[in-house]
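Figure caption, in words: inputs first, then the predicted bound structure.
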Amino acid sequence: LKVRIDVVSIFPEYLAALDLSLIGKARREGLLELAVHDLRDSTHDRHRTVDDTPYGGGAGMVMKPQPWSEALTNIRSQSPAPRPLLVVPSPAGAVFTQAMAYELAEKEHLVFACGRYEGIDERVLEWAAEHFEVRPVSLGDYVLNGGEVAVMAMVEAVGRLVPGVVGNPESLIEESHSDGLLEYPVYTKPAAWDGRDVPEVLLSGNHARIARWRRDEQLRRTAARRPDLISDLAIDDLDPADLGV
Ligand code: 6GU
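Bound structure (6-chloroguanine present):
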């Protein structure tokens, strides 16, 4: 169940950090096959031009179609999948979520097309839809200068869900968002630090009381910080004890 990931960018060095940590280890162990491509390798002029002025006027530059079609055609020709998923990072995309990370982790081949400037000529996305499943994706409601940082976040979120990448699969089950709630607070030794005590319930050895306390802290924290997540809960996501019955 290996996942192949290709990233196309005009700043391939940005993605060098994907050699580090858990994702780098997964690559070395062959669980994840990741290649980063320089879009400028698909240009043919002396200046390796990837952008031009926008039709209709306006600020900034737009990425030209030709280098993209050439780069993506090359990647497509090497694909193990009949119709790889093309993720196009964009603040105008659908918001990336943990559910989407799980969905992407099931794919055989993911391709990330990092735009810069004001974006990629729209016809590239139309053309690409004939060869890929095209998915514009945003990290959230703020603007980055390009897709590279977003791709780092998405590759890490997806990569850690590939079987074998995270050593202890329990840590995937317990973490934030897996049950629709934020995580409970955690503590380690010493039991007293800076005049602050670890909540006594955690030292009690009473596993049922600890589980109840942690769940209440999750609910309290989620209601305070992310009321939108509370609204999204289905009745079946709650335990009768969550409601005090
Ligand atoms: Cl995926 N790309 C860019 N350029 N800006 C963003 C983003 C993506 N997500 C949030 N802001």
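The mean pLDDT is 95.
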